[in-house]
Design brief:
By secondary structure, the protein is an all-beta fold. The chain has a 6-stranded antiparallel sheet with strand order 1-10-9-4-3-2, with no helix packed on it. A 4-stranded antiparallel sheet has the order 5-6-7-8, with no helix packed on it. A hairpin with a 7-residue loop joins β2 and β3. It contains no helices and 10 strands. The chain has one domain: Rieske [2Fe-2S] iron-sulphur domain (Rieske Iron-sulfur Protein, 3-layer Sandwich), CATH 2.102.10. Bound molecules: FE2/S2 (inorganic) cluster. FE2/S2 (inorganic) cluster binds next to loops.
């Protein structure tokens, strides 16, 4: 039997500016970076896989985030490391909007 996904509340949609990144802490998960494009929302771990940098303090160019420390880039859709010195992917999470709120979907 397929289990219903667990939803963790992240924030209000209205707290996210298009083209911006917000750092969010949710119990039981590492710090998260929440990205808002025009109509889409993405979630990754906040900490860069190359060092102790916060991706939410980085720069968002379309669906690519650039780390503020060494400039490594990641796809916010897939987590793929796109440019040196970032080589390991950052973990991504599924975002779901329900009404005016953003949730992170955890599937067992
Ligand atoms: S800490 Fe992010 S690229 Fe080095």
């Amino acid at each position: 039997m397929k289990m219903a996904p667990e939803l963790k509340r992240i924030c209000e949609v209205s707290e996210l500016e298009p083209g911006s990144i917000k750092r969010v802490e949710v119990e039981g998960l590492p710090p998260l970076a929440v990205y808002k494009l025009d109509t889409e929302i993405f979630i990754t771990d906040d900490i860069c896989t190359h060092g102790q940098a916060s991706l939410s303090e980085g720069f968002l160019e379309g669906d690519v985030v650039e780390c503020p420390i060494h400039g490594g880039c990641f796809s916010i859709r897939t987590g793929e490391a796109l440019s040196f010195p970032a080589t390991l992917p950052v973990r991504t999470y599924k975002a779901r909007v329900v009404g005016a709120e953003v949730f992170l979907e955890i599937t067992a």
